[in-house]
Every structure is written in structure tokens, then in C-alpha cells.
Amino acid sequence: MRAHLTGDVGSAEFLNSLLALGEGIIPADTNGFVNVQGLSTVVTTPATLRQLLETVPGVLHAYKSADRTPDPAEMANFPVEFLNSLHPAGLPPHILELKVEIPVILLRNLRPPKLCNGIRMVIQALHPNIIEAKIITGCGKGEQVLIPRMHFYPSDADVPFTFRRSQFPVATCFAITINKAQRQTLSVTGVHLEEQCFSHGQLYVAFSRVGRREDVFLYSPSQKAKNVIFSLSLSLSLSLSLSLSLSFIISFHSDFS
């Protein structure tokens, strides 16, 4: 575990608390919420995107999209100001604020397999009609790429009419989901739980990305966190591990007998 990396007394205590959290030993209230003061530093106000951007040195560039309906006659019913205010899922915002050296995520497939939806990049240079970026995930990791503007059309499920947004196909990605954070080791982690965990072991995964309590910061409106633990899953995992160990011992004994 990552708590072993530092090797100090505080890390050992953090490790024991993490194990208790993952096994569901930490007492929870009737709604499944646990007190995580011993596992993290609880903050009362989450950081906004603008505050995160301000921590990065450099000039802030604001790119505005060009929004319109395919039929010019519909512009009277859906003025540009109204279209600018919409932010359907999967589309970049009307005003896209970027800085050099900030992380972004690609929202569309441009050149598979290197430039696919979900690939993360770091901005290298910003121009009026092109973005220079370096890929930091996937098979194209380390490669310099150029990102142009492109047209976006929201799905009928998000907007009951058709309009087109011309914008860069990227969005800032200072945060990732807990599931995507699995197998990653971080120096500092902030856990934003405005919406609580809903699946087995998610809270354990979120807190165990670092090796010390001092490196975990939690925001939760209730200042507590919901710890979802399915006891049956733990029992099945333990039974499977014992079965595999027993099978290995029998096989090993048979090979040398």
C-alpha cells in the first residue's frame, strides 16, 4: 500500500485506518455515513474552477463559441444569447477558459487511437484558431498535437431542438472520477463528495491514493462521507483467495511428490 512508502508512525496509523475503512469496521450511522476526521483534512468550501485556474501562472485565454441553428428562420425563436447559455452534456462551454500548462480532456475522437474521446493532455500553447497540446495518457503519451475547432451537435435527449456549437473539443480536467483514480499514486488528493459514494469500496479507493493523512483533503456538505461496503463481496473475495491458495499448495505438493 502507498502508506508503506513513507515508513513513519503517522503513515502506519493511516494504514490501519484505511484497512478499517475498506473492511467496514469504522462505525457508521444509520445512513452509512462515517466520520473521516482521522483520515483526512475536512474543508468547508470547495475550490471553484476559476480558483484552480488562478493557481496556474500565465495569461488566461477565453475562447467564445459560435452557436447557431441550422435553419436561419429559427434564429428568431432561439436567439444567440439563449444558445450561448446552454451547456448540454458532452459539449464544451460557450466560454472556454484555458491557460498554458493546465490539464484538459478531449471530448471527441479526432485521430484514433492516439486522439480519442477521454484522452488527457497538457496545454503547450494557445492560438486564436488552434491549440498545441501534449498527450499525457494513452498510446500517444508524450506526443505533441494540434487541436482545431470543430462543430458540435447536442443529442435530442439533452436539447429538444437542433443547434450547432463551434468550439475547441476540450474541457479542463483538474479532477477525475474515483473509479478512474484506481491504480494511481498521488502526492496530494482532494476528494469532492458533494454527491456521495454509491458503490462498494469507492471511499477506500479515494483515500488510499496517498500515503499520509495530511495529504488528503475532503469536501462534503455534511462533513462526513458515505462508506458503501458489501459484506458479501468481502466474504466472497476472502473465500476465493483461500481457494486459490489451497489449490496452489495442492498443485505444488503434487508436483514435488
From TrEMBL:
The keyword DNA repair does not apply. Residues 81-125 form the DNA helicase Pif1-like 2B domain. The chain crosses the membrane at residues 228-252. Coiled coil: none annotated. One of its GO terms (cellular component) is replication fork. It comes from the Eukaryota. GO terms for biological process: DNA replication. The keyword Transmembrane applies. Keywords: Membrane, Transmembrane, Transmembrane helix. PANTHER family: DNA HELICASE-RELATED (PTHR23274), OS03G0423850 PROTEIN (PTHR23274:SF51). This is DNA helicase Pif1-like 2B domain-containing protein. It comes from Acanthosepion pharaonis.
